[in-house]
Amino acid sequence: MKSNNYSLENILNNLKIDALNPMQEAALKANEKHEDFVLLSAAGSGKTLAFLLCILENQEKGNQNTQALIVVPSRELAMQIEQVFKLMGTGNKITSTYGGHKREIEENSLVQPPAVIAGTPGRLCDHIRRGNITTDSIKTLVLDEFDKSLELGFLEEMKFIIESLKNVQEKILTSATDAVEIPGFIALKNPERIHFLKPEEDTERLSIKSVFSPEKDKLETLFKLICYLGNRSAIVFCNHREAVERVSKFLSENGIYNEFYHGGMEQQQRDSALSKFRNGTTNVLVTTDLASRGLDIANIRYIIHYHLPHTEDAFTHRNGRTARMEASGTSILILNEEEKLPGYISGDVEKIILPEEEMLPEKPKWATLFIAAGKKDKVNKVDIVGFLTNKGQLKKEDIGLIDVKDFFSFVAIRKVKMNHVIYLIKNEKIKNKKVKMEVAK
Question: Which residues have CB under 8 Å from 117's CB, separation 6+?
């Protein structure tokens, strides 16, 4: 039986909540059994409070070390969890760790070990390697929105974190979809599944939001919006090619990695832009309605309408890029004072209030290698993996998505390895042929 180290009544009063909901009660019940469990519940249903209460129940009184670690896919989620935990008013210390600001700030917070740490996979790995986190004392591990962490390519980081925690007694996984397979390395022990998804919520439906631009020119608002959304994938739709290139240039000049895509580009340029967006070299694609039909790009989280679409049909097709299959998605319209929501959008549209200060999203972890050989040269994915593991000395986990076209190929490679790979392969042949290989422009 676990000890109750907190006053539930005080926490609910502090959070201005009358009572726990059935999902939260079910999570606490599962926690009592001291088994691993998977919590499936829709976004906004209170999963954060559920697992934070479980963490508090697991806390050992008098233990001054870190006892719980929460792994999240985004900086925004880490900050949100920290805020909720502080509002609970338990007196326990929490620290959030994430990219986009100085590591030294977090190191100072970790000198006196917090009871709970919430962080993104990459930054947590960094702290663990540097010895800033006392891993031996961590008894509870939470993988919040674990499906999103896997979707964003954090598999290796998650594996490293789990292997570093030798004394974990309980693992809690949360997700808003039941469609993702749990990797074996997470090593759950007879996990209980707490299933609170309604049939229609297994695929979180598309939500529509708006954001106000105080200026007629929406560039600054778009920049702040992307900073607010973090490093999740987003397509920005403009109505004209000139606007696409102008928006893309502005974002690049302000530190937002992005690619642009429109019908006036050469085919190789278009293929390069789409490959970089698909493989995570960039999380932002600025485009015309050319990208609203027929593109096979998985896991797009946000559709941003920089310009309002001319017709309802165009709006529908743009939004069709997200919330596909089992994924969730959000469509965001940027409106200046001269614009109103189109009449075909019915129901309540949530307004996004952007924070005063913006923080650049974490930089992508992948870069793209261009190889001037493809299907017509009898080069396939297996050839490319073999070449890069042999001549480029890469491990398979350092190689991401491979896109083989007729006369050229694009390969995602971990950014930290790219310069060394280029150096190793510059004089090598693939399929007995010397071809141009360089970082994709």
Answer: 66, 68, 69, 70, 94, 95, 96, 97, 110, 124, 133
Residues for the chain: how many in total? Answer: 441
Helix (H, G, I), strand (E, B) or coil at 174: strand
Q: Where are the beta strands (DSSP E) in 130-241?
A: 140-143, 170-175, 192-195, 207-213, 234-237
The answer to whether 364 and 280 are in contact (CB under 8 A) is yes
pLDDT digit string (tens) for 199-218? 654 344 578 999 999 999 99
Amino acid of residue 19: A
Residue 113's nearest CA partner among 159, 157, 161, 69 is 69
What domains can be seen in the chain, in order of their start residue? 8-201 (3.40.50.300), 207-352 (3.40.50.300), 366-439 (3.30.70.330)
Using CA atoms, how far apart are residues 432 and 406, in angstroms rounded to an integer?
A: 18
Chain center to CA of 202: 19
Tokens of 399: 């190689």
In tens, the pLDDT along 284-303 reads 999 998 887 656 676 788 99
Decide: residue 198, CB within 10 A, 0-12 exposed, 13-18 middle, 19+ buried.
exposed
Q: Are 93 and 112 in contact (CB under 8 A)?
A: yes
For 301, the enclosing helix (H) or strand (E) is: none
- The candidate with the shortest Cα–Cα distance to 318, out of 287, 341, 354, 344, is 287
Report which residue type is found at 183: P
CB 28 within 8 A of CB 57: yes
Separation in Å, CA 399 to CA 161, 179, 183, 280? 20, 25, 19, 12
151-181: per-residue pLDDT in tens?
667 888 999 999 999 999 999 999 877 767 8
CA distances from 378 to 237, 375, 434 (A): 37, 5, 14
DSSP 189-208: SSPEEEE---GGGSSPPPEE
Nearest-angstrom CA–CA distance, 102 and 124: 13
Q: Note the pTM of the prediction, 2 decimals.
A: 0.58
